[in-house]
Known about the structure:
- It contains seven helices and two strands.
- The protein is mainly α.
- The protein has a two-stranded antiparallel ribbon with strand order 1-2.
- Helix 3 (84-135) crosses helix 4 (138-160).
- It is globular.
Amino acid sequence: MAQKPxxxxxxxxxxxxxxxxxSAMTILxxxxxxxxxxxxxxxxxxxxxxxxxxxxxxxxxxxxxxxxAVLAAGAILLLTSRDRARMRLPGWILLGAGAFxxxxxxxxxxxxxxxxxxxxxxxxxxxxxxxxxSLYDRECAWALTILGGDLMALWLCRRGxxxxxxxxxxxxxxxxxxxLCAAAVxxxxxxDRNHGMVGKLRLLPAKGDPLVIYIACGVSAVTIAAAIxxxxxxxxxxxxxxxxVFAVAAYYTVRQL
Length: 257
């Protein structure tokens, strides 16, 4: 007599899928909350009236210490909880929220408008990358992470290379970014020859194809070098990289359907 199919075999796959979507939704909600907080800082601390600026200045100083306290609470929860599997998510939420509140407050007070503007761009970018790492193949996630870093570097070059204060630090950072792209190609080439492994660290699936990562590194190095040569080119390079990001994301979206 034929055995009935075991429907319970479907549960592990469904469980993994649910965990993936839950992780992506958690990152989305956290990113939206962080961006809303930064926009409030920008509206009332950077561009507010005198009373608003003074009030937010005091509030941000309090937020730094409050954030450090929340961060410590999250770390204690992660380290001391007996049921660590159950307390892992609340612990990481407290840890991340506390770190962000403290860091955002300190950066806003110390570096003011320039840093807040950068954070308003960096937080959505980090949120999107986190969602991509949750939903997409590892090759796609690495490539989009590299291209996302390229976009941030181009934005910084366009905004900062004309500044007397930030010109030299951003120039040094841009040169370091080009060197990092070359190093990344070498690392992923080694991983490709060792079934995705570099030592004990898995960077790619065993049968992964790093071609898209090589393309991302090459495009990043060329566009950053162009931005160093001419700030005007950084604007057009940002659009070109954005089109490439869309193309890579669309390709892997179709492939994973």
